[in-house]
Amino acid sequence: MTGAASGIGLALSARFVRAGVDVVMADVEGDALHRRAAELTAQGAQVTAVTADLTDPDAVERLADTAFDLLGDIDVVCNNAGVLGPVGQPLWEVPLEKMRQVFEVNHWAHVLVARAFVPRLLERGRPAHLIHTASMSAFVVGAGSAAYAASKHADLAVARSLRADLRGTGVRVSVLCPGRVDTPMVQGLTAPRGAGGDTSVSAEDVAELVWDALGSDRFYLFSNSDAPLRLRDQFDDVWRHVPLPPASPEEDLWHAPKATTAARNH
């Protein structure tokens, strides 16, 4: 369970513990992670906290080593680490370094976790389920959300590719696409125009959705009740452009610019 110190990752860990499942929790926030793991351990399950920077390939490999050494066989991998990054700024104003940091966590860390865990899952030949946490922002993009939305689009593509790669094996893949969730990451945030949606759910609701999907072939997991409307609006916009005939060579698509004084003088 990555990104497990708070939010959806913590709620997922708690849901698994409540079912008597042993859990390895990972997060870069070590102090908070160990506090939460201790609280869950008190409920009677085996819970191990691993402080790890999931953007570091070596750290991810060590996490996989620890998880398989402790648990033997792993049934579920929740690839959940994520950050919000800069919001409310147009793309050209977002510092590139900030945008890269968002991609490191929301995309590359998920790639590294999949690369570390999936081959070992396949080697064991047992049924398993890989959950990728993306977002409704993998579909619905509002103003001022370029870094976050682009990283989630990338993670959706990774999940879809993994689904195709793993077809016919015992490893299932689902992509979790929550809308607004009441977590520390979004508390106090006013969503950029067109990015937020009209509903909010708890992290516990999201965890229950994931739990109910385990072992099934459900790929897209949407948590918020306004998801159908938001998706319809997006795909209506796509389909609106599909049937348009190509422009004829004679069609004047742009108004010819007027000659400037400088050009006329040449």
Automatic annotation (TrEMBL):
<feature type="domain" description="Ketoreductase">
    <location>
        <begin position="2"/>
        <end position="184"/>
    </location>
</feature>
<dbReference type="InterPro" id="IPR036291">
    <property type="entry name" value="NAD(P)-bd_dom_sf"/>
</dbReference>
<dbReference type="InterPro" id="IPR054968">
    <property type="entry name" value="HdxpentlteDhPtlF"/>
</dbReference>
<dbReference type="InterPro" id="IPR057326">
    <property type="entry name" value="KR_dom"/>
</dbReference>
<dbReference type="Pfam" id="PF00106">
    <property type="entry name" value="adh_short"/>
</dbReference>
<dbReference type="InterPro" id="IPR002347">
    <property type="entry name" value="SDR_fam"/>
</dbReference>
<keyword id="KW-0560">Oxidoreductase</keyword>
<dbReference type="GO" id="GO:0016491">
    <property type="term" value="F:oxidoreductase activity"/>
</dbReference>
<comment type="similarity">
    <text>Belongs to the short-chain dehydrogenases/reductases (SDR) family.</text>
</comment>
<dbReference type="InterPro" id="IPR020904">
    <property type="entry name" value="Sc_DH/Rdtase_CS"/>
</dbReference>
<protein>
    <submittedName>
        <fullName>1-deoxy-11-beta-hydroxypentalenate dehydrogenase</fullName>
        <ecNumber>1.1.1.340</ecNumber>
    </submittedName>
</protein>
<feature type="region of interest" description="Disordered">
    <location>
        <begin position="246"/>
        <end position="266"/>
    </location>
</feature>
